[in-house]
Structures are given as C-alpha cells and as structure tokens.
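testing teh design pipeline on a random one, pls ignore if ur not involved
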C-alpha cells in the first residue's frame, strides 16, 4: 500500500526523510535502517536529519504518525464508505484491504505493525505511537459495526471495539505470515477468511435474534 504524500505544498527535507522511512523500514526493518540509509534515500544531508529529528527514535515516532496521516487519507477517501447498509460498508472495508494487497511484500505490509514487533521492549515511545496508529484505525470501523448490530437487533457477548481490533489482529498476522513465507497469497487467504468470519458472525446472530 502506497503512502506517499500527495499535498501540493513544497516537499521539505523532513517530508523526504519520512517518506524514505516508510519505504526503508518496511523493506529492511527499523533496526537495520540507519540514519545514513535514510539520508541517502531522501537525498538530504545528515545535518538535515538532525535538524528535524533529535534521534533515530524520534524519527520512528514521527514515521508512525506520518503513516497514520497518509493511510488515514487513503481510507477516508476509499469507496468502501459508499454502501447504505453498515454491514455492507464493513464488508466492503475488508474487500478493500484485500484489493490493496498488491506489489512486493514491503509495499503492502504495515509500517507500524513492523515497528511495533521489532521495538517492543526497546522503545516505549515508538511502541506507543504504533499502538495509537493501529487502534486509531480500528476505531474508524466501530461506528459501522455498532450500526450493523443495531440494525439487526443483535445482543452479543462481544463489542464493536473488540471486533474492530480483531480485524487489525488478522491483518497484522496476515502480514507476518506473508513475510515469514514470502508468499503474498497467504495474506490474501487470511483476509478472505476474515470476510467469511464476519459474514457468519452476523448471519448467526440474525438467525438467533431476528423475529421479522
């Protein structure tokens, strides 16, 4: 999934470094990506790097926030918001996640998921920024899940928040399996299973509670 900035404002050295971080960290990992690597990819000096970031950790935090900004714009404008029925919107979201599993593995895997696994126990600041990004995105799904439950009169032992977070757990796990095997089709299979799970979850609840 491409997360390149599309703003027409002048691209600064900071922008270039952040965009380089999105690419390199997904390709090589956070630890293996050096400040020199970032400067070379961005075409800026090391002096420019330290003008904008006090440390590589600060760059990691900023990269997680930049990722949220870029992907947030992508998802906000995606066509899955169009269906009138909230369950159909939620399923269309999953379909959209499947559609964007294209290109090389590093191009569609998640920056914040990659960093969260790698820096756990090493950088509280980056871990927190990555967690905020993942849970923040999950929160954007809760309203449609809640509305779908209300429309169907569902009384469940799970919450919109838990299902929204479950979708992210499946997606992050799909990325890990794809990286571990070098096979993008595994990720596609996992997302397809997620869709089937959601369909079954709502159909079972409807069959139990729907008296219409």
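output:
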């Amino acid at each position: 999934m491409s997360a390149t900035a599309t703003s027409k404002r002048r691209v600064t050295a900071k922008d270039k470094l952040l965009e380089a971080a999105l690419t390199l960290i997904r390709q090589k990992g956070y630890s293996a990506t050096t400040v020199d690597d970032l400067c070379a990819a961005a075409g800026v000096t090391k002096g420019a790097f330290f003008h904008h970031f006090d440390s590589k950790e600060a760059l990691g935090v900023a990269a997680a926030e930049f990722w949220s900004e870029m992907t947030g714009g992508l998802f906000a404008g995606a066509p899955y918001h169009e269906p009138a029925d909230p369950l159909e919107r939620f399923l269309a979201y999953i379909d959209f996640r499947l559609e964007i599993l294209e290109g090389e593995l590093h191009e569609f895997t998640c920056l914040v998921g990659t960093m969260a696994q790698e820096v756990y126990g090493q950088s509280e600041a980056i871990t927190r920024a990555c967690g905020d990004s993942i849970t923040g995105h999950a929160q954007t799904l809760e309203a449609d899940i809640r509305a779908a439950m209300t429309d169907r009169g569902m009384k469940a032992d799970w919450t919109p928040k838990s299902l929204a977070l479950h979708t992210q757990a499946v997606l992050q796990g799909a990325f890990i399996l794809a990286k571990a095997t070098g096979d993008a089709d595994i990720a596609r299979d996992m997302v397809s299973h997620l869709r089937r799970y959601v369909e079954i979850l709502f159909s079972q609840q409807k069959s139990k509670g729907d008296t219409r």
